[in-house]
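Internal tracking record. Fields below are filled automatically when a chain is submitted to the structure queue. Please do not edit lines marked as system-generated. If the sequence contains nonstandard residues, flag them in the REMARKS field before resubmitting.
Queue: standard
Priority: normal
Entity type: single polypeptide chain
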Amino acid sequence: MKQSNNKKIKIKSILRLILILVCGAVVGFNVYLANANSLVGNKLPMPFGYGAAVVLSDSMKPELSKGDLILVSEKDSYAKRDVVVYQENGMLVVHRIIKIDGESVTTKGDANNAEDAPIKVKDIKGEVIFHVPYVGDAVNVIKSPIGTICVIALAIILIEIPRRNEKKKDDEEKQKVIDEINRLKNEVFDKVKEENITSDEENENKTEINEENND
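SYSTEM-GENERATED OUTPUT FOLLOWS
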């Protein structure tokens, strides 16, 4: 039973640690994104050549929809039909390459009628290599100031509640030890008291016998 409880405690501790690490990573990533955006106007930082973004419109339907989370990878070169991400007027654009002319490329949304103005290849952030439908809305909430505060609050809760529970458990264990010590002390005291009473009674009996003998 004790081993089972220890195993459960260990599993809970591991899960709590994982959640805390995830919360820390989310907060750190949000700070990183905020700094990149505010300092250099970069809407999509690409640490280690990868980045993640949220599709903001339905211009790439049916392949991509508004609210999809996309994973973007830097490439040395791009080809026609690649779905790429680039920044224009402070906004990220996720469109497909339809024409390449030397160092310039022309893109177009699959659901759009008109093509985009040509851009430089060097302005392309990367190619979309993976997407998760509808997850982007949740990511946007987490990336918002309120979402970040909620994540920090969750991390504090994950740390504080188990700490309080452990302290409460320790206090209960200490109280049990104190109660047991007091119980043993009372037992010893009662036993000593009984022995003293018995000894006094024996002494009184002896005194009475001696008085009778003297008479």
